[in-house]
Amino acid sequence: MKIACPKCAYEPRPHDRWQCECMTLWNTFDTQGRCPGCGKVWRHTACPRCGRWSPHHEWYHDLPPIDLEEAESATEIPAKG
Ligand SMILES: [Zn+2]
Ligand SMILES: [Zn+2]
C-alpha cells in the first residue's frame, strides 16, 4: 500500500505523529485516521510537510478501482410487475 500526500507527495514515516483535539499523539495511518485516545475518526488528514489537509482516503494510492456498474446495480430499485 503506497501512502502519500495528495498535495505534495510526501510519504509519511513511521515516526510521524498527528495530534488529536484530545491531545493524543499517534500515527494516523496506523489506525486509518481513528484517534486511539477518544475514538474520533479524522476524515481529513494534515500533511506533516506541506501542512495542507486532504481527505484521508486520498492518501492511499493503491486502492483497487471501484466497480461502478456493480455499485449501481446494487442500489437499483426492483421494478414492480
Ligand atoms: Zn503534503
Ligand atoms: Zn482523540
In brief, what are we looking at here?
The protein is mostly beta strands and 81 residues long. The protein has one helix at residues 68-74; strands at 18-19, 25-26, 44-46, 53-55.
Indicate the topology.
Elements: E1 18-19, E2 25-26, E3 44-46, E4 53-55, H1 68-74
Antiparallel strand pairs: 1-2, 3-4
Structure description:
This protein starts with 17 loop residues before the first strand and ends in a 7-residue tail after the last helix. The chain has one domain (1-64). It contains one helix and four strands; from the N terminus they run E-E-E-E-H. It has one helix at residues 68-74; strands at 18-19, 25-26, 44-46, 53-55. A hairpin with a 6-residue loop joins strand 3 (44-46) and strand 4. It is extended. A two-stranded antiparallel ribbon has the order 1-2. A two-stranded antiparallel ribbon has the order 3-4. It has 81 residues and is mainly beta. The chain binds zinc ion (ZN) (2 copies). The site of one zinc ion has 8 residues, from loops. One zinc ion (ZN) is lined by residues 5, 7-8, 10, 47, 49-50, 52.
